[in-house]
């Protein structure tokens, strides 16, 4: 992956998808030490398995429909909706329809690089 830490502009066509789980792939759109933006694409039925991390996460549903669970509470979200995950809470998603999420993390997810 090209280091975009010191670059102001990112062009979607120049960023390769990275496969993560079956039916799931991501693009790291931009990052710095205290913030990272990631686009995640899901095929219908794909699962973002439950997990937790010390990063705070804000997520925008760019397209599709997702069942989102955070700390045991669930909601169905669709394009235009969003959710927030405080640090260390277990969370995950299931793609009811194919779609994309745009995640923002603070601080950045170094393990994604």
From TrEMBL:
Residues 39-97 form the Cupin type-2 domain. InterPro entries: Bacilysin_H2HPP_isomerase, Cupin_2, KdgF, RmlC-like_jellyroll, RmlC_Cupin_sf. Signal peptide: none annotated. CDD domains: cupin_KdgF. SUPFAM superfamilies: RmlC-like cupins (SSF51182). This is Cupin domain-containing protein. It comes from Bosea rubneri. The lineage of its organism: Bacteria, Pseudomonadati, Pseudomonadota, Alphaproteobacteria, Hyphomicrobiales.
